[in-house]
Amino acid sequence: MTGISFTAGMKLLREKNYEAVYAQSIEALKVDEKNPLPFFLLGVLAADTGSHQKALEFFGKAVEHEPGNVHYQTYYAKALVGLGQNEQAKSHADKAANIGTNDALLADMIGVTYSRTGFHELAVPFFERAVKLNPLWANFHFNLGASAEFIGDFKKARTAYSNTLSIDPSFYLAWFSLTHLEKQSADNNKLSQLIESFERAAGNVDGQLLLGHSAAKTLEDLGRYEESFDWLKKGKKDKNRQVKYDHQNLAALFEAVKKASNLGGPSVGQAIAASDFIPIFVIGLPRTGTTLVDRILSSHKQVRSAGELNIFSVLAKVATGMPVNMEFDANVFLRSDAMSAKNVGENYIARTKDLAQGASHLVDKMPFNFLYAGLIHRALPNARIIALRRGAMDSCLSNYRQLFASHNHNHDYAFDLKDTATFYREFDGLISHWRRTLPPDRFMEVAYEDIVYDQENQTRKLLNFCSLDWDEACMRFHENVAPVSTASAVQVRKPLYSGSIGRWKKYGHKLDKLKAALGDLAD
After folding, report:
1. Considering its fold, how many domains does the chain have in total?
2. Which helix (H) or strand (E) holds 512?
3. pLDDT band at 73 (very low <50, low <70, confident <90, very high)
4. What proportion of the chain, given as a percentage, has pLDDT over 70?
5. What is the pTM of this model?
6. Beta-carbon neighbour count of residue 499 at 10 Å?
7. Lowest-pLDDT range, 290-294, 407-411, 507-511?
8. Tell me, what CATH number does 432's domain have?
9. Residue range(s) defining the domain that contains residue 321
10. Nearest-5° Cα angle at 199, 197 to 200
11. What is the dihedral of CA 24, 30, 34, 35, to 10 degrees?
12. What's the CA gap between 320 and 333, in Å, rounded?
């Protein structure tokens, strides 16, 4: 081959000598415009410098010219999943897997793609391979632990998280994951280590956030609720200052959503409206039972779960000409009159039907789709939308107690209890709006508490709403072996329990300000 080599190119990229990579790659393409290597190197350069769409194009060219190269397929899959193109990402991860690799980093990358597309059972063997090839890389152990946890192999997860910390004690996310994997007890906890690590992490905002949550979880498990709350507040303090939550943007968003309802808008046509494929959207605030309902429904023989998909929001953003990212955007709703509901509906069906694996119903459990309920009904009039409700005090506390992904600013309200209460009030108002405007055979509310205390009757109502016959397996949802990649991965593998109902009362006066902020909604 003329010009730059793979080894030399990757070395230059590690050194961030981008000018040399670019110049040598262009020269190589002048000699041979079908040479895959320069396209690959330009793809890595583009990804490193934040040009993700351009990186995707370059990796696509590399794969086109040499489909049997595991590096090209792996990086292409990674770029695809990074832009939310999960089906194609999984397809190219499969191709990379079939080619095979003895490179630890590539094995880990394939595992990450499988993990991010929801195929944790496929990810585990690749993470295990990465660990075997390079047992001293902490991140490989952590990734193995996360996917093992999601498929319910808690023993393997515990070992992997412990191995992560033995290599790198400052891997704070591993402390958090290990603490949340099982209930902490008086003779089996890491509280002193967590507190020591918290003090050493002074100035590390994200580190103290993780450790503060871990200490709070431990103290709550030990029944020391007020101390637990103090550690939550302590761990979140600096992150809350860093975030500076914007209440005006929040109010503008919810107002735009309501204005965009336009439920009498154009139909997607009989082909989709009369389809025998029924999407079920499970929506609601996080940590209020959405995963529970997903597991109940997906235990039915005619239902599959796709997990938390961002497909509908992406399609809505594309259809309204807005940037495709994970952030809430009021402009999507303000411009929704120009959206082709027919195209969005057809594209959604096209991108999700294979995930159902032949089942007639598919559960899309993205909680924040509560913002899109009106647009969902316009685009998919055959879809069922199930909104989870939970007592306001428990809802707000559970969101405040939860550590959401810090790179996703949609959850920034949860760094402060008053902000959480404000978000809850907006949410409650929007659900009331959907109750008034969406047809009752397409929109249903269900209370988490009712499911816990009256499981069979509530399950029958859910199945009837979704036009499904009774299936006894739905009562044994905890036996469902499908992966769970949410914060409820541990809880939903156990039978129903009522211990989390009224949890807020255990925190005493610490939640007085939350109760005042919720006002008439407090319970």
Report:
1. 1
2. helix 512-518
3. very high
4. 94
5. 0.84
6. 7
7. 407-411
8. 3.40.50.300
9. 249-485
10. 65
11. -30
12. 8
